[in-house]
Every structure is written in structure tokens, then in C-alpha cells.
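Worked example
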Amino acid sequence: MPITPQEALQRTIEHREIFHDEMLHLMRLIMNGEISPLMTAAIVTGLRVKKETIGEITAAASVMRELSNKVTVADPANLVDVVGTGGDGAHSFNISTCATFVIAAAGAKVSKHGGRSVSSKSGSADVMEALGVNINLAPAQIAESIEATGIGFMFAPNHHPAMKNVAPIRKEMGVRSIFNILGPLTNPAGAPNILMGVFHPDLVGIQVRALERLGASHALVVHGKDGLDEISLGSSTLVGELKDGQIREYEIHPEDFGLAMASTRTIRAESPEQSRRMLIDVLEGASGPARDIVVLNAGGALYAANRVRDIAEGIALAREAIDSGKARRKLDELVQFTQAVAA
């Protein structure tokens, strides 16, 4: 017998796990709007309070993937996503979005999955629009964009239509829930490689194991000890790495790579326009903490994409992509392609 919503709620109250097949059934009911908003809110709150297990997260992500509008990429082997859960409260400029252009310029392909702002003043979709990128391409056009430019931006609401049933509930609740950690696990292009930032240290081990169960190839899940959901310049960064079927957990520090430490205050942005300006400055060769954190994260993503042997080699390649002007040109390519294909 499938689990009922009432039974699921009782499990969370008793701090007991909802098993994989039960969670699949429950998540389909939630995503299809077959459970009342009140009961949905109660269940996701109960899951948060008891702490979601790897099994529950994996099952829920499987359903989100199942219900998504997918992007079919011809050769996804070296495709990488660079994504964060948000919710870190740092109000940083769009580091992973800026890194996307650097990564593509350095020879990897990026399927960037993102939405509007969560905790920053500017989400990846906000800044992509400010840069002139058309974020509303059809799945086939996004696949073309990846092939032509090395970048495909997937605006999350366009690919997860079932989220419309939970979006008002999430907005009214106004607290983190399982949905904050599902988005980064549900790349519509099925990128097998990922650099994922998370807002809590406990999520490093949880998310990397969820990615393993979901079939990821090479994943780096990171959390800066200063709270940043990126590889940080302000502290050591916790890393959970999945590679060749093995999981390792370790710490890295910016000084390991010859980078100066810098506070998150130095990379704040108060609006999509300010984030756009900072992003362009980095791509045009400006030095400072914004550049350093971009090359650090691009280096991590190039390693996840198996373009280089380690993060240090990735950083060197990222610097070259910026200094040669290739990263700046990559932005222009994406803007031109997305505007032309949608015309």
C-alpha cells in the first residue's frame, strides 16, 4: 500500500524515515497538486525539522527529474553544471554565472540551471537577463546553444512546470525546505558532472551521496566555512568529491592555490545591474577578489568536467581564458546566439 499523506506526516513527527518507494509516491502527489497546500506545507516542514535523509532527497529528486522538460545533449560526457542552493545570505555577485563564461572559454560545456534570486540580490536568471541573454529558449534551442557556444542556460521554471503547485506554498512559508536542495540535483540536461555549492556544512556529505545515487559521474559539493555556497576566498572550504565511483571529503584553502584571502564583503552586489557590472569587469581582466573567486570556482568546475587533472590546473586554464579575452567573447557569443535563435 502506498503511504498516505497523513502517515507521511506522522513519520516526520516521529523522526522516522519515509522510504524510497513511499517518497516517490508522496512526491508525485505533491508535485501533481493532489495533496492540499496545508498538508504539503506540514509534510515539508516535518521533513525539514527531522532532517531529510539521503534516500528521501534522492527519491524526491528522481520525481522532479521525471516530471521535468528535458534538454537532450548529443554528447554529455564533459557537460558540467555550476550551481548553488542559494540561501547563504552573503548577497554575493553572481560568481557561478561569471564562471560559466570562463569554463566554456576554457573548453568545457556548461548546462547552467538557475532561477531568480533566493538569498542574493540577483539570481543567475536575473543577471543573465541583465547581460542580454534570452533565458526563455525551448529545450531544442538550448541544446543548440550548448553545441554552438558551449553554454546552455536553463531557466528553472520553464523546465519544472510541476513546481507551480508548490511555488505559492514555498513563498507563503518563507523558510528553507527540501525544495531548496532539490533544484541543484535536477539539471534538465542531465549533466553528469557538477560543481555544487550548499548553504550548510551537513549538506556536503548528503548532496554528494545523493548525486552518487542519481548517477553523477564527477561531482564536487562545496561549502565555505564562512557560510558561502561557493569555493570561498574568506575561509577554508569543505569539499565532498565523487569521482570514479568513490567519495572523498576534504578541505581546501585559497592559499593552497596562491590566492589571497578576502572577505565576502568584497564581492557583494546590491542589484542585478551591479552584479552585471562586476561580472563584466572580471571578464574584461580587472584584478581583485571578484576575479580570484571566479577563477577559483571555474577551476573547480573545469576539474569536475574532467578538462584538467586538478583544481590548480583548472585555475591556470581559467586565468588564461580571461586574460586572452576568450571568456568575454564567450558572453557575446551567448547573447548573440540566444537573441538570434529566438527571433
Summary: Strands lie at 79-84, 109-114, 151-155, 193-197, 218-224, 237-243, 246-252. The longest strand covers residues 218-224. The CA atoms of residues 15 and 50 lie 5 Å apart. The radius of gyration is 19 Å.
